[in-house]
Amino acid sequence: MKVLYRQLEVELKLFLRNKQEVFFTALFPLLMMSLFGYLNKEASVGNVSYVAFLLPGVIGMSVMAAAFLNLSTSLVRQRDDGILKRLRGTPLRAWALLGAKVLTASTVILFQVLLLISVGVLFFGVEIAGSVPWFLATLLVGVFAFTAMGLALASLINNADTASAAAHAIYLPMLFICGAFFPLDVMPRLLQHVAKALPLTYFVDALRCAMLEGGGLGNYAKDLSVLLGWLICCFAITVKTFRWE
Amino acid sequence: MSMITVDNLRKHYGDVKAVDGISFEVQEGETFGFLGPNGAGKTTTIEIIEGYKTPDSGNVTALGLDPRKDGYELKERIGIMLQETSLYPDLRVGELLRLFASYYRNPVDPGALLEMIGLQEKKRAFVRELSGGQRQRLAFILTLINDSELLFLDEPTAGLDPQSRRAAWEWISRAREKGKTVFLTTHYIEEAENLCDRVAIINHGKIIALDTPKRLMANLDAKHRIEFVADGPIDAARLKAIPGVDKVLEAGRGEFVLYVRETQPVLRELMALAEREGLPLRDLRVEGATLEDVFIKLTGRRIRE
Predict the structure, then answer these.
(1) Domains of chain A: which residue ranges?
(2) Which residues 12-31 of chain A have a CB within 8 Å of chain B?
(3) Given a cut of 90, is residue A47 above it in pLDDT?
């Protein structure tokens, strides 16, 4: 446990010392929400205000940035630098190293969620009328699914620069076509079909439901099963192909 | 007691026999060196013993443990310095040491280690701010942080300037004095001669000689080397004809190396020859044979081309 704690402490420090990561993970989602929210103050989607619609999308964005983008790029960079190889020469267990990375992402996400919800409620008057347990459950499944995606990417790509480019090339389009910022049905038909295969679509949908409607298992079963499917596939790829050096 | 046993070890990469039937033992408290050119199989061997790589065949134990089966227990008790020092660049030196200390059951005080290598004032510096030599020193003390019994140093002084290299030899010797067993690889002749109790000379994945540096050199017929640069043409055959010269090596640009049994008579003849031909000799040096000469005798080429 002490090992996990030390490793977490170090990973958090490394995160905070990386200005680019801090900007894209911690500040960018807040900026996006403030900007889009301000520009569309009066707009509404269905029977909720646009900002209320946007908030779960921006939370989805934060989760993906921390769990997928940061995790994959930092892992590949550390492997490229030979750091993972050096760590493998110590008794540090792989689960402790990966566990610390997941906990780091989770810590960042927790702060992000609290910050985004506070800003949404206090400055944009978003009314939260959902289910806390379902919100937390969705968040948990999402964090694990996107972590697994990050690990799978890190397993498939060796070079740090390539991995960063690939991670961004997956992350940025997903933000725009998966309904995080705009409703799916304003998209061209083709993109809607693409979006139906992507995990962020289901994650944001479940978050939105948990924050704005609540409801029971029926509202979440499909979303969470798709996320679990992605989790299992990506985890299998990782187990089969992950390398330390 | 044997700290490392390696028996008929083989590792092939396609057609390349990186390790081709190597056997040796390392005894408690000794510093054992693998000397050989780049690509001879040194790193592959050391990384198999450390547990990084799986051999194709052969048996390996370190501290009586199987590196593949008891990897974690082994890593708890050994110190590893990889060929490339790769440490978190964005951590401070003190943070890095505390992190590595947390990986082990019985860590030693990081402060004392920093003091030992004279880096105590760098405790708050970022790893990326250190010079190459300082980073190497840091990588070295990380091998001691678990009070390890057995150190693996893969090319510990590669790329260092001569002064830093001598300093590194000092710390490695001190580790040996404290009773640590050291297994190191190097392609520096002096390093093997200065540090190692026994040296295995390795070439093309095979051990071609294994003994104390003294005894390896005692087996040479020619015990000395005369080196010089001739400022003018001279036929190597005439040098070879001087009585007492075993072998003549032309190193290019007028540089010659004579391998001789006795220095004085050969020097006298050489001087007379140069006098007669009106041939100025520059940079004349007489040296005792080194492990390099053992390597040349066995393989016909230099360790570093």
Answers:
(1) 2-241
(2) 13-14, 17-18
(3) no
Who contacts B112 (Cβ-Cβ below 8 Å, separation ≥6)?
none
- Give the span between the Cα atoms of B245 and B267, in whole angstroms: 10
Q: For residue A89, which residues of chain B lie inside 8 Å, CB to CB?
A: 50, 52, 75, 80, 82
Contact call for A6 and B86, based on CB within 8 A: no
Mean pLDDT of all residues in B126-155: 94
Closest to B135 measured CA to CA, from B84, B185, B186: B84
Q: What is the pLDDT of residues B205-216, one digit of tens each?
A: 999 999 999 888
pLDDT at B300 exceeding the cut of 80: no
Band the pLDDT of B301: cuts 50, 70, 90: confident
Q: For B10-36, what is the mean pLDDT?
A: 95
Q: Tokens for B103?
A: 């990986």
pTM of the model: 0.87
Provide the shortest C-alpha distance from residue B297 to chain A (in Å): 37
Q: In Å, how far is A237's CA from the nearest CA of chain B?
A: 22
pLDDT at A185 over 90: no
Q: Where are the beta strands (DSSP E) in chain A?
A: 44-45, 48-49
Rounded to 5°, angle at Cα B20 from B15 and B23: 165
Q: Rg for chain A (alpha carbons), in Å? A: 18
- Rounded Cα distance between B65 and A85, Å, is 21
Residues 73-92 (A) with a CB less than 8 A from some CB of B: 78, 81-83, 85-86, 88-92
Find the residue in B nearest to A75 (Cα): B88
Structure tokens at B211: 């003994």
What's the ipTM? 0.88
* Partners of residue B86 in chain A, C-beta under 8 Å: 81-83, 85-86
State how beta strands B31-35 and B181-186 pair.
Answer: parallel
A61 in Cβ contact with A180 (< 8 Å): yes
Nearest to A83 among B76, B80, B87 (CB): B87
Instruction: Look at B103 and A90 and tell me if their CB atoms are within 8 Å.
Output: yes
Beta bridge partners of B62: B4, B65
A2 in contact with B at a CB cutoff of 8 Å?
Answer: yes
Taking alpha carbons only, the member of B186, B138, B179, B184 closest to residue B159 is B186
Residue A237 scores a pLDDT above 70 = yes
What is the per-residue pLDDT across A125-178, written as a single tens digit (0 to 9) for each? 998 888 999 999 999 999 999 999 999 999 999 999 999 999 999 999 999 999
Q: What is the mean pLDDT of chain B?
A: 91
| Contact between chains at A91 and B91 (C-beta distance less than 8 A) | no
Average pLDDT value over all residues in chain A? 93
